[in-house]
Amino acid sequence: MKYKRKVANDAFWMAVALCMAKRGLREGEVPVGAVLVKDGKLLAAAHNRTGKHPLYHAELLTMLSVSPYDLKGATLYVTLEPCIMCSGALVLARLKEVVFALENDRFGGTYSLYQIPLDLRLNHRLRVRKGPFTLEVLALMKRYFKRFP
Predict the structure, then answer these.
(1) Residue 73 backbone class (left: φ over 0; alpha: ψ -120 to 50; beta: rest)
(2) Is 75 within 8 Å of 100 (Cβ atoms)?
(3) How far is Cα 101 from Cα 128, in angstroms, rounded to an integer?
(4) If pLDDT is split at 50, 70 and 90, which confidence band does 1 have?
(5) I need a labelling partner for 140 at 20 to 30 A (CA). Which of 30, 77, 78, 127 fits?
(6) Cβ atoms 104, 80 nearer than 8 A
(7) Among candidates 136, 135, 131, 133, which has minimal Cα distance to 6?
(8) 42 has which bridge partners?
(9) Alpha carbons 7 and 104: distance in angstroms, whole number
(10) pLDDT by residue (tens digit) across 74-92?
(11) Residues acting as catalytic residues
């Protein structure tokens, strides 16, 4: 029973992250959305703003918008697997877990290229899970990159 509830929560929170990614797409950004959740409550939501600054990734923007004390034990739902920079930030923030919808074969720092949150040499590890809406996120990414021949 607990597992079914977790899956339902994953779908809900990833749907919110997907809405944020769509907002980013409308603003001309790479469509990546993220939501930060703790104890079933939304702490923050953001989408990429890398057009304004290369460090303004959705993951970092969500974490920067809350108190550092709220980060420990939180879960990040993000539409695209976090990059190396964001993966390092997740570890330093001591998040409990990260759930992503689509693997990032070019820059993935969480699962596909590197597994920074799982590295035993670091002082903190977090759970990494693949979540729902892979096909929807893939379609958004294709829609964005179709603009560039």
Answers:
(1) left
(2) no
(3) 11
(4) very low
(5) 127
(6) yes
(7) 131
(8) 37
(9) 22
(10) 999 999 999 999 999 999 9
(11) 59
For residue 134 the two structure tokens come to: 């892979």
State pLDDT tens for residues 29-63.
999 999 999 999 999 999 999 999 999 999 999 99
The full length of the chain comes to: 149
Indicate whether 3 pLDDT > 80.
Answer: no
Structure token digits, residue 113:
């290229």
Q: What pTM, to 2 d.p., does this model score?
A: 0.93
